[in-house]
Amino acid sequence: MLGGDPQLSGFEDPDEYGFETRAIRAGQPHDPYTGAVVTPISLATTFAQEAVGQPRHGYEYGRTGNPTRHAYQVCVASLEGAQHGFAFASGLAAEDALLRVLRPGDSLLLGDDAYGGTFRLIDKVHGNAGVQTAAVDLTAPEKIRDTWTPETRMVWLETPTNPLLTIFDIEAICSITHELGGIVVVDNTFATPYLQQPLALGADAVVHSATKYIGGHSDVVGGFVATNDDALADHLVFTQNAVGAVPSPFDCYLALRGTKTLAVRMDRHCSNAEAVVELLAGHPAVRSVLYPGLDDHIGHEIARRQMSGFGGMVSFRMHGGRDAAERVSAATKVFTLAESLGAVESLIEHPGAMTHASVAGSALEVPDDLVRLSVGLETTADLLDDLAQALTALD
Ligand code: PLP
């Protein structure tokens, strides 16, 4: 929760300030004694009480609440335009906490392209607990009406999606879902709050793998949920404490440190990605490039409307099928062959064999000639030379 104590937040009304200022200051008090400008890593697992059942500043026990986590939650909630923010031990732990609002017999509509682990969590874990899932092509939001049943409670989507970079119209999807009485969760991992503000477009909750752009340096696994829905926030307060999938104080410190530079990093991720897209789009070995910034991308106009930049993720399909896709993924030197995304170093992967192996045979299966890039912050020319040599090596 944002918490109302300005002494603790150190920043009385974050909403008055711009994105970059809030990223650096919201929730991050200067130390009242030393003036230190960096939020400390608060390791205490328990907190002395004034009297029986009377904690001093709301902190009792480290799973329930922690000052470093509080600072981080206030900061990212502010960036998402949310009253409430909750940090979790991973993106999937954050997703799991949200999905626990569903009861056995409830049904969920999932956009038909999503991170493989999200599908696995929904299908194998919550599916076993009695939640039904239908995959829907949300590029046609009217399909929500066709698929809706009296048991449907929630629509879950990523935009841009992982790994196909499909764009879904958040406003249109929220409008139809709300009319039908459901709630909308948007996974904002790829866009980040710097490029896209789902809550302002009508979403009920935003979820993140903070492991990606929020942390930004491939050194912390984390998840986040932001919402303005008080009932959902109550559920999340309860679940965060009752289930206990919380990040450590050190993880919160790292994620908060990453958040401070989110805006400048995203600007460079976007410009480097645009240069990479230009190279790939003109290359004879490449069959098609999937990037919402391209004029001929099917979601380009929606992306222009709901995003302030097109992001650092680029996917492309190879002539030569799976073999060519695997070979190019293994032939780069600056792009590291690895899972994950959203950090300073550029990564390349084959989704079918790596991040999305768990969707094989499902409605979310990805093409096997697909390669996904997370374009990092290295020198632009080095990235272009590296991809050019990897593609040429195929000949
Ligand atoms: N959402 C998206 C879009 C992802 O790409 C991922 C992981 O790759 C997750 C959620 C899961 O996050 P985590 O790996 O932090 O559990």
Walk me through the topology.
Blueprint (H helix, E strand, L loop, with lengths): L5 H4 L9 H7 L23 E3 L2 E2 L11 H13 L4 E5 L2 H9 L7 E5 L4 H11 L5 E5 L6 H5 L4 E7 L11 H10 L3 E5 L4 H4 L9 E5 L13 E5 L2 H14 L5 H12 L1 H20 L4 E5 L9 H7 L6 E6 L2 H9 L6 E2 L9 E3 L20 E5 L5 H13 L3
Parallel strand pairs: 4-5, 4-6, 6-7, 7-8, 12-13
Antiparallel strand pairs: 1-2, 3-9, 8-9, 10-11, 11-14, 13-14
Helix pairs in contact: 2-3, 3-10, 4-5, 11-14
**Helix/strand structural class:** alpha/beta
CATH names the topology of the largest domain as: Aspartate Aminotransferase, domain 2
Task: Name the CATH class of the largest domain.
Answer: Alpha Beta
Main β sheet profile? 7 strands, mixed
Order of helices and strands: HHEEHEHEHEHEHEHEEHHHEHEHEEEH
Beta-sheet strand percentage? 15-25%
**Could you tell me the number of beta strands?**
14
Shape: globular
What order do the strands of the largest sheet run in, or round the barrel if closed? Answer: 3-9-8-7-6-4-5
